[in-house]
């Protein structure tokens, strides 16, 4: 029970400091944010801050010096520079927001879909992004001007589309890197829909690079927009920082200050946007929990609803929960061929029965379990056979229907407790979510149930563990958390893939005890994938021995232990460490060798 005594840090909510507080603690970010807020307020309140109309030219005020009725002087047409600066900021900020919005919406959404789902959309959108990136932005904007006219809004929207390619690439790459994380698989096994997984697990990872990129895009948009207007390609009837630059440049020798103000504003706003983005990213990252590998996750289980699956034509005999017939699994190879790795296995699990699937590494145990749950990785598929569950063939069920079964009726306990929990969320949050989806519980009800489940799986500080992040618990405790999640919806079948392999030996026995007692309490069937005959002896009623994609021998655990016949089973038994095949104690070269029988077994 060593894992149960693990003491959590006194302050498990160390990452609790609010986003605002963290932002305020970064002086550069704070100053930049205040500056941006002032600029935005000044733009909004421009009519209150100056009585001058930015477009009205007064001949007497041409190139007027600062002071003299004009805070920052007059420009070459006698318009008030301060008023133009204020009203110009409206245009620059809105233009940047438009370009940013277009880039993030188009690039972000397509990147998410391409990165998460891949397939034809990925091919298509990656090609489009490559084309967009290859286009010279300024030339496209100049060409677009002949079609859409001088409208700066159109120019910014087109610029946003061009920039969306960089957002697309960034998001796609980030999503791809997180899509195969075990905690994402675990969420899938828990029965969460793709949309929920994207919103809960994937977006969290993507938001940091997007924020940084957003600061960059907004800055570039302001600079490009000013550049177009500086070249005289904008709408000269509205005050903008770019047109002020143009005017200032033309009068640089007569009134050098004219070019200073818009340049200063452009530089400071761009700098502030970048610094605020950096600061916001840092604050978000530090409030969203430490990210480091964690442990397994749990799916949830079956409906407590005994009436579940009204199609009560269970496979044949009443007690049979799962019947696998001739299951064949394969992977598509790069040369177009298919590599078959499971060659037509039969398997049956009855209610309340523990069936062990044992074999050496690479024999196909895990792939068989994944195929049963229809969770094969990309490229993998069921080539033939049936997976009968309550009268349905899971092999032919749609993903939508599988989502209802996985986590609710069939739950999964994975092998590595430290990689199946999302490091960004507390343990409680990860337990609560599937229960809300499958059992329709309110947040408070799901919370109460989660704490009860944590207590039930032997965690003696359930409230604290509920609030803890995955990195704050031990591997054994993480495995208990995953088991708690797996049984949270009272599944009828639990698929456990080497649930103790990654754990310390002292913890392994506790976890096996736990599985046994839960199986008794819930009368679940368990399909236990293992390579360890000790685990089989401890837990299983029946066992199937798997080798190179085939089941070579099966029977009751007792029969297999006592009367196994297949040479491969014998080979597996021979590999078990016994006093006879342990190494003899060291003897100096001149001492006689001790026969095996003398080896102490104490
Ligand atoms: N993505 C894949 N593409 C092609 N072959 C694969 C892929 N994943 C697994 N395999 C093959 O499937 C076979 C069975 O793998 P599986 O993971 O089921 O083994 P296992 O018996 O569970 O072993 P272990 O206990 O080491 O996980 C292996 O030969 C492996 O090479």
What does this structure look like?
The protein is an alpha/beta fold and 602 residues long. It has 2 domains: 23-287, MetI-like (MetI-like fold, Orthogonal Bundle), CATH 1.10.3720; 320-581, Rossmann fold (3-Layer(aba) Sandwich), CATH 3.40.50.300. Helices cover 51% and strands 12% of the residues. It is built from 21 helices and 10 strands. The protein has helices at residues 19-25, 27-44, 46-49, 81-117, 119-134, 137-148, 152-179, 182-189, 194-230, 241-250, 257-287, 365-372, 399-405, 427-439, 443-456, 462-467, 475-487, 505-522, 533-539, 557-563, 567-574; strands at residues 320-332, 338-350, 354-358, 380-389, 392-393, 410-413, 493-497, 525-530, 542-547, 550-556. The protein has a 6-stranded mixed beta sheet with strand order 6-7-8-3-9-10, sandwiched between helices. α2 (27-44) packs across α11. The longest helix is centred in the N-terminal third of the chain and has 37 residues, at 81-117. Residues 1-16, 288-316 and 596-602 have low confidence and may be disordered. Residues 331, 339, 341, 359, 361-367, 377, 379-380, 531 line the site of adenosine-5'-triphosphate.
State the strand order across the main sheet. 6-7-8-3-9-10
Strand composition percent: 5-15%
Q: What is the mean predicted local confidence, pLDDT?
A: 80
Number of helices: 21
Helix content: 40-55%
State the oligomer. single chain
CATH architecture field of the largest domain: Orthogonal Bundle
Number of domains: 2
Q: Can you summarize the main beta sheet?
A: 6 strands, mixed
What structural category do the secondary elements indicate?
alpha/beta
Broad shape: elongated
In the CATH hierarchy, the third-tier topology of the largest domain is known as: MetI-like fold
CATH class of the largest domain: Mainly Alpha
Can you identify the CATH superfamily of the largest domain? MetI-like
């Amino acid at each position: 029970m060593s894992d149960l005594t693990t003491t959590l840090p006194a302050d498990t909510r160390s990452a609790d400091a609010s986003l605002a507080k963290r932002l305020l603690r970064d002086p550069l970010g704070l100053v930049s944010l205040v500056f941006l807020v002032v600029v935005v307020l000044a733009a909004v309140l421009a009519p209150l801050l100056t009585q001058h109309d930015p477009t009205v030219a007064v001949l007497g005020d041409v190139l007027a010096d600062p002071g003299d009725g004009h805070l920052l002087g007059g420009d070459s047409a006698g318009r008030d520079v301060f008023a133009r600066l204020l009203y110009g900021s409206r245009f620059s900020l809105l233009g940047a927001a438009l370009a940013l919005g277009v880039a993030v919406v188009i690039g972000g959404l397509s990147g998410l879909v391409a990165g998460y789902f891949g397939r034809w959309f990925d091919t298509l959108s990656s090609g489009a992004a490559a084309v967009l990136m290859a286009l010279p932005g300024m030339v496209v904007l100049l060409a677009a001007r002949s079609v859409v006219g001088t409208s700066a809004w159109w120019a910014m929207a087109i610029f946003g589309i061009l920039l969306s390619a960089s957002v697309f690439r960034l998001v796609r790459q980030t999503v791809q890197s997180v899509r195969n994380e075990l905690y994402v698989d675990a969420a899938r096994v828990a029965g969460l829909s793709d949309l929920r997984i994207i919103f809960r697990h994937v977006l969290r990872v993507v938001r940091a690079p997007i924020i940084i990129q957003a600061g960059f895009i907004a800055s570039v948009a302001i600079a490009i927009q000013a550049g177009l207007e500086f070249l005289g390609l904008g709408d000269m009837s509205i005050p903008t920082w770019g047109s002020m630059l143009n005017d200032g440049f033309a009068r640089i020798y007569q009134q050098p200050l004219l070019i200073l103000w818009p340049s200063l504003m452009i530089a400071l706003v761009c700098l502030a946007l970048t610094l605020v983005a950096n600061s916001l990213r840092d604050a978000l990252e530090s409030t969203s929990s430490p990210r480091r590998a964690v442990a397994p996750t749990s799916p949830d289980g079956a409906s407590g609803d005994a009436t579940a699956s009204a199609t009560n034509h269970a496979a044949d005999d009443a007690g049979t929960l799962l019947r696998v017939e001739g299951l064949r699994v394969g992977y598509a190879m790069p040369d177009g061929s298919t590599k078959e790795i499971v060659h037509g296995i039969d398997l049956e699990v009855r209610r309340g029965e523990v069936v062990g699937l044992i074999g050496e590494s690479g024999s196909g145990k895990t792939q068989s379990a994944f195929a049963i749950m229809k969770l094969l990785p990309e490229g993998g598929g069921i080539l033939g056979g049936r997976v009968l569950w309550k009268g349905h063939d899971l092999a032919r069920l749609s993903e939508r229907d599988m989502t209802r079964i996985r986590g609710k009726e069939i739950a999964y306990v994975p092998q590595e407790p430290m990689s199946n929990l999302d490091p960004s969320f507390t343990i409680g949050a990860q337990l609560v979510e599937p229960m809300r989806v499958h059992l329709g519980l309110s947040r408070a009800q799901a919370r109460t149930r989660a704490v009860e489940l944590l207590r039930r799986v032997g965690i003696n500080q359930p409230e604290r563990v509920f609030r803890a992040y995955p990195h704050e618990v031990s591997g054994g405790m993480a495995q208990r958390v995953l088991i708690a999640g797996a049984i949270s919806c009272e599944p009828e079948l639990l698929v456990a893939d080497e649930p103790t392999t990654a754990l310390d030996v002292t913890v392994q026995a506790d976890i096996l005890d736990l599985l046994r007692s839960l199986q008794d309490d819930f009368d679940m069937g368990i399909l236990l994938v293992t390579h360890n005959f000790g685990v089989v002896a401890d837990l299983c009623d029946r066992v199937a021995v798997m080798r190179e994609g085939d089941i070579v021998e099966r029977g009751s655990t007792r029969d297999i232990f006592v009367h196994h016949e297949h040479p491969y089973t014998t080979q597996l038994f021979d590999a078990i460490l016994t006093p006879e095949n342990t190494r003899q104690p060291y003897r100096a070269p001149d001492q006689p060798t001790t026969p095996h029988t003398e080896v102490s077994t104490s």
